[in-house]
Specification:
This protein has helices at 8-21, 81-86, 93-112; strands at residues 27-30, 46-56, 60-72, 148-151, 158-170. With 187 residues, it is α+β, with helices and mostly antiparallel strands. It has a domain at 8-120 and 146-162. Strands 1-2-3-5-4 form a five-stranded mixed sheet, with helices on one face. β4 (148-151) and β5 (158-170) form a beta hairpin. The protein is elongated and about 70 Å long.
């Protein structure tokens, strides 16, 4: 079986697509933490993907990211009559933290159980679009995660969670297709 090497672009695009497909995430962005768009036009909840580094294994690459899941907290003054009748607190911060934490857990779960990552059409008799082909390239993650809460980390009352995740992919470190001249490099 040939190894389907996954690039940095593949990993980023997969994380972005996860953000698009998750029904609670409205906006997905990528880049340095300082590039998070704090404009009032941004729709929240937001998933922000911050690339950290890449580590190599014997036959793997691990793309390491810091993921931020955040939403805007609203204060009681902005609430509708319905919100006020059930409000015990001055803001919805606890609800925002709970929702954002669940999104983080969903992301980890989707990478741990990679059947959600690839859809195979090679078996048309099977109606489930999430059936995967064992030869499809997939991403993996394992281990334990520490999810760190933040409140008002940015200028506009954003609250949420940040965590680091390593996305592991197969890589055979193929040397036959390296774009170099066919000359020895040792002197």
């Amino acid at each position: 079986m040939a190894i389907h090497n996954k690039t940095f672009n593949n990993a980023i695009d997969t994380l972005k697509q996860l953000g698009v497909e998750h029904k609670q995430i409205t906006t997905t962005t990528t880049g340095d933490i300082w590039k998070i768009d704090m404009d009032n036009q941004t729709l929240f909840p937001l998933l922000h993907i911050n690339p950290v580094n890449v580590t190599t294994g014997q036959s793997t690459l691990t793309y390491n990211f810091q993921l931020f899941v955040m939403d805007a907290v609203t204060e009681k003054g902005n609430w509708t009559e319905e919100n006020l009748q059930s409000a015990d607190y001055l803001s919805n911060e606890q609800e925002v933290m709970s929702s954002c934490l669940q999104i983080c857990v969903d992301i980890i779960g989707m990478f741990r159980h990679s059947k959600w990552q690839t859809a195979t059409t090679s078996m048309p008799a099977v109606p489930d679009p999430l059936v995967t082909d064992i030869d499809d390239p997939v991403y993996f993650t394992d281990g334990e995660y520490s999810l760190e809460p933040f409140q008002e980390r940015f200028d506009n009352l954003l609250t949420g969670w940040v965590f680091s995740i390593g996305i592991e992919v197969q890589n055979d470190f193929q040397t036959c297709t390296i774009p170099v001249a066919d000359n020895p490099i040792g002197k």
